[in-house]
Amino acid sequence: MEHPYRELATRIYLAFRYPLAAFAVIMVVGTIGYGIVAHGKASVLDCAYMTFITIATIGYGEVIDMSASPAGRVFTMVIGFLGVANIFYMTSKMTAFIVESDLNEGLRRHRMQRDIDGLSGHYIICGIGRVGTNVLRELVATGRPSVVIEPAAAALEAMREVYPRQHYLHGDGADDELLRAAGVQRAAGVFAVTGDDNKNLVVTLSAKQLNPGARVIARCHDVRFVDKIRRVGADDIVSPDYTGALRIASSMLRPAVVSFLDEMLRTDEGLRVEEVRLADGARERRIAELAPANTHYVVLALRQDGRREFNPRPDVVAKAGSTLVVMATPEGRAKLERLAAG
Fold first, then answer.
1. Do 35 and 123 belong together in one domain?
2. 3-class SS at 278?
3. In the listed set 45, 75, 103, which residue is the last one of a domain according to the structure?
4. Which residues of 146-171 are buried (b: 16+ CB within 10 A; e: fewer)?
5. I want to staple 168 with a disulfide (CB 3.0 to 4.6 A). Which of 107, 122, 145, 148 is the partner?
């Protein structure tokens, strides 16, 4: 991916190369012309200065005397007309450049890249269609930082209307350079959720090669791609058709449960069923110490040694590498993560 400063310099060059070239030509022609008018009696600096003050309409006195040279005065008028016309043209180009937000866009992209470079433990969403938008909504609701990668400018613009502060990059998520720019080496996970199974496969492969430790979740429509995506490193594969069918069946068989989960997802508190993992090498601690009673979370289960203990007692000891399954608000999850880390 092209560096933002280099891209901005290129756009400035393309916008102003012709007026700047015209200015240089007028300066050279004027300097030579005044040298001829002065019959070689004026220095090059005086000739260049005379040309510049004529173009700039500064209004200083004549460095080279034109009182006895009608041709010199005609030459001055021609140089002045061409110079002023070129300045007006350059001013119009600059106005268009600013109004079209070229300069602001370049600076904004640089600031966004700088912010992305400061992220760690974040998530990358490759594809911001219907599925990607819902993934982003969940990440925002639970206070998790993320970066969106999307090739369609219209989709990014629609996303920005809803999430104006969201970090994003315009391009193909299968591009290694773009994944690096999104901070994949420091990311906690990658969502390969474009509408193309082939592209999701490539995104999965690229992300796992750049950061084997990142968790990659891939979207897959065609069941023939499931094994291929899993072989290239996807930690989990989700089929919208399958999960949609499961939701329909659950709504019929267990409506109270589905209703509760829906209400939980719609609340402003951001209540979710979360998991908090004790780092490898952490000291053993009792549940009462690791997750003391709090109104922001409820401990549902403890998973360790390959088994799950539902509603663990306060005196149960949690080992390094074990995982707490909790229902928590974003604040509660953050507090438990700090306790697990400390």
1. no
2. coil
3. 103
4. bbbbbbeeebbeebeeebeebbbbeb
5. 148
Entry pTM: 0.59
Q: Are residues 98 and 130 in the same domain?
A: no
* pLDDT reading at 133 higher than 70: yes
User: Could you tell me if 146 and 136 are in contact, meaning their C-beta atoms sit under 8 angstroms apart?
Assistant: yes
Sign of CA dihedral 66, 67, 71, 73: positive
Instruction: Write down the H helix ranges in the chain.
Output: 4-37, 44-55, 70-99, 102-117, 130-141, 153-162, 176-181, 197-210, 226-231, 240-253, 255-266, 287-290, 330-341
- Could you say which DSSP state residue 62 is in? P
SS3 125: strand
CA distances in angstroms from 166 to 102, 104, 153, 163, 251, listed in the order given: 20, 17, 15, 5, 33
Question: Which CA distances in Å does 229 have to 42, 125, 177, 243, 330?
Answer: 77, 17, 21, 18, 32
Query: Does residue 143 lie in a domain region?
Result: yes
Residue 109: other Cβ atoms inside 10 A = 16
* DSSP code of residue 185: G
CA distances from 282 to 214, 275, 341 (A): 21, 17, 8
Residue 6 pLDDT greater than 80, yes or no: no
How far out from the chain centre does Cα 338 lie?
27
Claim to verify: residue 82 and residue 141 sit in the same structural domain = no
Alpha-carbon gap, residue 160 to 87, rounded angstroms:
37
- Does a structural domain hold residue 259? no
Nearest to 22 by CA among 87, 93, 98, 91: 87
Q: How many domains does the chain have?
A: 3
Q: Is the pLDDT of residue 319 over 80?
A: yes
pLDDT at 3: 52
Q: What is the pLDDT of residue 224?
A: 82
Q: What does the alpha-carbon distance between residue 155 and residue 162 come to, in Å, rounded to a whole number? A: 11
Whether 108 is covered by a domain: the verdict is no
The Cβ of residue 60 has, within 10 Å, a number of other Cβ atoms equal to 11
Residue 320 near residue 278, CB atoms below 8 Å: yes
